[in-house]
What does this fold into?
Amino acid sequence: MSVGDDARIVVSTATIALQEQLLKKDIPFLEEILGIGYRAELAKGKGNYLCLLRYREELQSRGLFPEDDLVDRLREWVDHTKTGDRAELPFEPGESWGMVCADDTCPGRKCQLNNDCFFVKARKRLQRAGIIVCNHALFFIRS
Ligand code: SF4
It folds into this structure.
């Protein structure tokens, strides 16, 4: 396979540590010695991404977060994050995350926030990727 082919390489691992090693060390090393840019991306389940629609609905209902501090911290992050990826949160949101993350209720293209959606953007990055790194569970779900 050569760069420019539509085919993608999918690398499935058992642990996050291995995924990080691939993305931060092994693939950049290969790119450097081969002089090729692979555009590697990490595939994650939708529950890792903030759903803007559910987040806004929860903010309006104000029923989710009993602590105002948590509301403020999440709001500030939402205003600045480019990925909406839970892993980039500067704090642990706990179980409340399950109320605002992307899930199976997502109406897809019918969602009014589809153009700004973090999960949709992540999937588009995967479509452009030359190498996709994921865990075994995600690999078998999508195979
Ligand atoms: S497209 Fe789906 S995941 Fe994205 S904001 Fe809309 S409902 Fe949420």
